[in-house]
Design a protein that fits this description.
This protein has a single domain, classed as Up-down Bundle (Ferritin). Helix 2 packs antiparallel against helix 3. The N terminus is likely disordered. By secondary structure, the chain is mainly α. It contains six helices and no strands.
Length: about 170
Protein backbone atom coordinates (compact mmCIF):
# COMPACT_ATOMS: atom_id res chain seq x y z
CA UNK A 1 0.00 0.00 0.00
CA UNK A 2 1.32 3.44 -0.87
CA UNK A 3 2.10 5.75 2.08
CA UNK A 4 -0.60 8.29 1.20
CA UNK A 5 -3.22 5.51 0.97
CA UNK A 6 -2.13 4.10 4.33
CA UNK A 7 -2.38 7.54 5.92
CA UNK A 8 -5.84 8.08 4.42
CA UNK A 9 -6.98 4.68 5.72
CA UNK A 10 -5.73 5.50 9.22
CA UNK A 11 -7.48 8.88 9.21
CA UNK A 12 -10.69 7.32 7.94
CA UNK A 13 -10.58 4.64 10.63
CA UNK A 14 -9.91 7.26 13.31
CA UNK A 15 -12.79 9.38 12.07
CA UNK A 16 -15.19 6.46 12.01
CA UNK A 17 -14.23 5.35 15.49
CA UNK A 18 -15.03 8.82 16.81
CA UNK A 19 -18.70 8.35 15.86
CA UNK A 20 -20.56 6.15 18.29
CA UNK A 21 -24.21 5.23 18.81
CA UNK A 22 -23.39 4.30 22.45
CA UNK A 23 -22.77 6.37 25.55
CA UNK A 24 -19.20 6.23 26.85
CA UNK A 25 -17.62 7.02 30.21
CA UNK A 26 -14.17 6.65 31.71
CA UNK A 27 -13.75 3.59 33.92
CA UNK A 28 -13.05 5.94 36.82
CA UNK A 29 -16.74 6.95 36.90
CA UNK A 30 -17.69 3.47 38.12
CA UNK A 31 -20.68 3.32 35.79
CA UNK A 32 -21.87 -0.15 34.84
CA UNK A 33 -22.73 -1.30 31.35
CA UNK A 34 -26.38 -1.28 32.48
CA UNK A 35 -26.02 2.40 33.40
CA UNK A 36 -24.47 3.26 30.04
CA UNK A 37 -27.07 1.18 28.17
CA UNK A 38 -29.77 3.20 29.86
CA UNK A 39 -28.20 6.54 28.94
CA UNK A 40 -27.74 5.27 25.38
CA UNK A 41 -31.41 4.22 25.20
CA UNK A 42 -32.53 7.62 26.50
CA UNK A 43 -30.38 9.41 23.93
CA UNK A 44 -31.55 7.18 21.10
CA UNK A 45 -35.23 7.60 22.01
CA UNK A 46 -34.95 11.38 22.27
CA UNK A 47 -33.09 11.71 18.97
CA UNK A 48 -35.40 9.32 17.16
CA UNK A 49 -38.50 11.10 18.46
CA UNK A 50 -37.19 14.51 17.46
CA UNK A 51 -36.09 13.31 14.03
CA UNK A 52 -39.39 11.59 13.28
CA UNK A 53 -41.38 14.57 14.53
CA UNK A 54 -39.57 16.84 12.10
CA UNK A 55 -40.42 14.45 9.30
CA UNK A 56 -44.11 14.39 10.25
CA UNK A 57 -44.17 18.19 10.26
CA UNK A 58 -43.03 18.08 6.63
CA UNK A 59 -46.42 16.72 5.65
CA UNK A 60 -48.45 13.67 4.92
CA UNK A 61 -49.46 12.77 8.47
CA UNK A 62 -53.00 13.01 9.80
CA UNK A 63 -53.87 15.68 12.35
CA UNK A 64 -54.31 12.96 15.01
CA UNK A 65 -50.84 11.55 14.37
CA UNK A 66 -49.33 15.02 14.41
CA UNK A 67 -51.05 15.76 17.74
CA UNK A 68 -49.56 12.62 19.32
CA UNK A 69 -46.14 13.36 17.86
CA UNK A 70 -46.17 16.98 19.08
CA UNK A 71 -46.67 15.81 22.68
CA UNK A 72 -43.87 13.29 22.25
CA UNK A 73 -41.60 15.94 20.72
CA UNK A 74 -42.25 18.34 23.58
CA UNK A 75 -41.33 15.61 26.06
CA UNK A 76 -38.24 14.64 24.04
CA UNK A 77 -37.06 18.26 23.93
CA UNK A 78 -37.30 18.50 27.71
CA UNK A 79 -35.54 15.20 28.22
CA UNK A 80 -32.80 16.20 25.80
CA UNK A 81 -31.81 19.03 28.16
CA UNK A 82 -32.08 16.81 31.26
CA UNK A 83 -30.05 14.07 29.61
CA UNK A 84 -27.30 16.50 28.67
CA UNK A 85 -27.18 17.74 32.26
CA UNK A 86 -27.01 14.17 33.57
CA UNK A 87 -24.24 13.30 31.11
CA UNK A 88 -22.24 16.35 32.13
CA UNK A 89 -22.67 15.62 35.84
CA UNK A 90 -21.60 11.96 35.44
CA UNK A 91 -18.80 12.57 32.90
CA UNK A 92 -20.62 10.62 30.20
CA UNK A 93 -20.02 11.21 26.52
CA UNK A 94 -23.37 10.92 24.79
CA UNK A 95 -23.62 9.14 21.47
CA UNK A 96 -23.15 11.32 18.43
CA UNK A 97 -25.38 9.39 16.07
CA UNK A 98 -28.52 7.31 16.09
CA UNK A 99 -28.22 3.55 16.05
CA UNK A 100 -28.27 1.85 12.67
CA UNK A 101 -31.69 0.35 13.45
CA UNK A 102 -33.29 3.70 14.30
CA UNK A 103 -31.60 5.45 11.41
CA UNK A 104 -32.93 2.82 9.00
CA UNK A 105 -36.44 3.20 10.45
CA UNK A 106 -36.27 6.94 9.86
CA UNK A 107 -35.11 6.45 6.29
CA UNK A 108 -38.05 4.14 5.64
CA UNK A 109 -40.44 6.71 7.13
CA UNK A 110 -38.95 9.47 5.04
CA UNK A 111 -38.66 7.74 1.69
CA UNK A 112 -40.98 4.73 1.77
CA UNK A 113 -43.73 5.25 4.35
CA UNK A 114 -45.44 1.91 4.06
CA UNK A 115 -48.41 1.45 4.07
CA UNK A 116 -48.68 5.14 4.94
CA UNK A 117 -46.81 7.68 7.01
CA UNK A 118 -49.24 7.41 9.94
CA UNK A 119 -49.01 3.63 10.23
CA UNK A 120 -45.23 3.66 9.76
CA UNK A 121 -44.66 6.39 12.34
CA UNK A 122 -46.92 4.75 14.93
CA UNK A 123 -45.30 1.35 14.41
CA UNK A 124 -41.78 2.74 14.73
CA UNK A 125 -42.58 4.97 17.69
CA UNK A 126 -44.30 2.13 19.55
CA UNK A 127 -41.27 -0.13 19.04
CA UNK A 128 -38.78 2.53 20.12
CA UNK A 129 -40.81 3.37 23.24
CA UNK A 130 -41.21 -0.33 24.17
CA UNK A 131 -37.46 -0.86 23.76
CA UNK A 132 -36.64 2.16 25.91
CA UNK A 133 -39.08 1.09 28.64
CA UNK A 134 -37.46 -2.33 28.84
CA UNK A 135 -34.00 -0.80 29.22
CA UNK A 136 -35.19 1.80 31.75
CA UNK A 137 -36.86 -0.96 33.76
CA UNK A 138 -33.63 -2.95 33.73
CA UNK A 139 -31.74 0.13 34.93
CA UNK A 140 -34.11 0.73 37.84
CA UNK A 141 -33.78 -2.94 38.86
CA UNK A 142 -30.08 -3.53 38.16
CA UNK A 143 -28.35 -0.18 37.66
CA UNK A 144 -25.61 1.06 39.94
CA UNK A 145 -25.75 4.83 39.55
CA UNK A 146 -28.37 6.59 41.71
CA UNK A 147 -28.61 9.60 39.35
CA UNK A 148 -29.26 7.46 36.29
CA UNK A 149 -31.75 5.30 38.19
CA UNK A 150 -33.59 8.45 39.32
CA UNK A 151 -33.56 9.81 35.76
CA UNK A 152 -35.12 6.58 34.48
CA UNK A 153 -37.69 6.45 37.26
CA UNK A 154 -38.79 9.91 36.19
CA UNK A 155 -38.81 9.01 32.51
CA UNK A 156 -40.74 5.74 32.77
CA UNK A 157 -44.20 7.28 33.41
CA UNK A 158 -43.72 9.81 30.59
CA UNK A 159 -42.58 7.16 28.11
CA UNK A 160 -45.45 4.88 29.21
CA UNK A 161 -48.01 7.67 28.76
CA UNK A 162 -46.66 8.37 25.29
CA UNK A 163 -46.66 4.67 24.45
CA UNK A 164 -50.30 4.42 25.53
CA UNK A 165 -51.19 7.40 23.31
CA UNK A 166 -49.34 5.84 20.37
CA UNK A 167 -51.15 2.52 20.85
CA UNK A 168 -54.52 4.29 21.08
CA UNK A 169 -53.80 6.19 17.86
CA UNK A 170 -52.76 2.95 16.18
CA UNK A 171 -55.92 1.17 17.36
CA UNK A 172 -58.03 4.06 16.06
CA UNK A 173 -56.46 3.63 12.65
CA UNK A 174 -55.00 7.13 12.69
Amino acid sequence: MQPQHAAAAILLAAGLSACSPSAQAPASTGLSSTDLDSVTAAYQLVQFDLTECQQLQAGGASPQTIAVSQKICADASGYQVSLQQLATARNITLPDKMSYDLESRFIVLRYHPNPNVNAQYLHDAIESHEDALAIFGNETANGTDPQIIAFDRGAIPVVQTNLDALRAAQAAGT
